[in-house]
Specification:
Layout (H helix, E strand, L loop, with lengths): L2 E8 L2 E9 L3 H19 L2 E4 L4 H7 L3 E4 L2 E8 L1 E2 L4 E2 L3 H19 L6 E8 L5 H12 L5 E6 L9 E8 L7
Parallel strand pairs: 8-9
Antiparallel strand pairs: 1-2, 3-4, 4-5, 5-10, 6-7, 8-10
Helix pairs in contact: 3-4
């Protein structure tokens, strides 16, 4: 048995790559389902992204997880992971958060333009307006769904943490 690709004309336009099978329909369905299962397994493979932060190893998590074209970026703080240092100022921290987020997305094959959902966690919600110019520079054209809340963070030096979800290739606004 075999599958072949061909062009098919429909009332909606020409479709290329239509798969046809030279076997009875039941055999074709079984063969097609096997190929579909294989494709789904390939697309749904979980890939881990690491920043090299000691927190990832110590706590047991990944900076980001990629499944298909979805990227789930863990809460990213203002730590410079190369030196494991953190600035005191919330604006400097948000700038570093965004660099860390951008690096994780780049490892996954994406950019900040692919971000569709973002969560901002601040030690003090009153500091949030000070971060807006930096957040607007990063997300102003993309306009992801967003939530901000106040919570204690793992280290008292952390003033902001940003968590994001992205869909690779979605980086164009409509």
């Amino acid at each position: 048995f075999f599958f072949s690709s061909r062009r098919r004309h429909t009332r909606y336009g020409t479709v290329t790559g239509v798969q046809t099978c030279a076997l009875p329909i039941s055999a074709c369905v079984v063969r097609a389902r096997g190929r579909l299962d294989e494709i789904v397994r390939m697309v749904m493979v979980r890939r881990w992204i690491s920043s090299g932060s000691t927190f990832e190893q110590d706590i047991g998590y990944s900076r980001a997880v990629v499944v298909g074209n979805h990227v789930f970026v863990s809460g990213t703080t203002g730590f410079d992971y190369a030196t494991m240092t953190i600035a005191v100022d919330v604006v400097a921290q948000v700038q570093q958060c965004l660099r860390n987020l951008e690096a994780a997305l780049a490892q996954a094959g994406g950019t900040l333009r692919d971000v569709v959902r973002v969560r901002y966690i601040l030690q003090d919600a009153a500091e949030f307006p000070a971060t807006w110019p930096e957040l607007r520079r990063a997300f102003g054209e993309v306009r992801p769904a967003a939530t901000m809340f106040e919570a204690k963070l793992a280290d008292p030096r952390m003033r902001i943490e940003i968590e994001a979800d992205a869909i690779l290739g979605s980086g164009t606004a409509h």
